[in-house]
Amino acid sequence: MAVATRSSTTDGWPLKALVILLCYVVGYIIYAAVMATAAELLQPLLMISPLLIVIAVHWLSTMPSSSTLSLLFPGTIPTDIHRAGGSPWGVALVLLIVFVLISFQPFVHGSMS
């Protein structure tokens, strides 16, 4: 008489499920730690990025039209940015105000509650 054996596809599925769950939990813990470290490292860059944008716009607007960068943007004239209206200092002031408001947001929310 033949003895019925269990299918090999259903053997050990609780163990496999536990291993997969463990991998997800460990992956989440590592992901959270990596993201916290990245946020700490990128915070200074995010704080000075508005200034870097203003400097880049100023640098690009004062470049001569015969520069190699003008080959990347055909048909652009360096003085077009000044004809569009506003000054780079006005843009810098607006970005500074936004930066200050974002920086003091936790303080304002904490004092209101």
Report how far the terminal alpha carbons are from each other. 79 Å
How would you spell out the order of helices and strands? Answer: HHHH
Strand percentage: under 5%
Overall SS class: mainly alpha
Quaternary class:
single chain
Rounded to an integer in angstroms, the radius of gyration calculated over CA atoms is 29 Å
Report the principal-axis shape: elongated
The major beta sheet can be summarized as: none
- Low-pLDDT parts are none
Give the strand tally.
0
- Summed up, the domain count is 1
Helix content: 55-70%
Tally of separate helices:
4
Name the average pLDDT: 75
Transmembrane segments: 15-34, 89-108
Keywords: Membrane, Transmembrane, Transmembrane helix
Q: What does the model show?
A:
- This protein is mostly helical and 113 residues long.
- Helix content is 68%, strand content 0%.
- It is built from four helices and no strands.
- It has helices at residues 13-61, 80-83, 88-103, 105-112.
- The model has no long low-confidence stretch (mean pLDDT 75).
